[in-house]
Amino acid sequence: MELGAVQKLTVVKKVDFGCYLSEAAGVLAASASGSGREKKEEKVLLPKSQTDENLSVGDEITVFLYKDSKDRLIATVKKPFLTVGEFGKLKVASVSNIGAFLEWGLEKDLFLPFHEQTYKVRPGDEVLVRVYIDKSDRLCASMKVYHVLLSDSPYRMGDTVEGILYEISGNFGAFVAVDDKYSALIPKKEFVKDLPAGSHIKARVTEVKEDGKLTLSIREKAYLQMDEDAEEVLRVIDSYDGVLPFTDKASPETIRREMNMSKNEFKRAVGRLLKEGKVEITETSIRRIL
Question: pTM of the predicted model, to two decimals?
Answer without folding.
Answer: 0.70
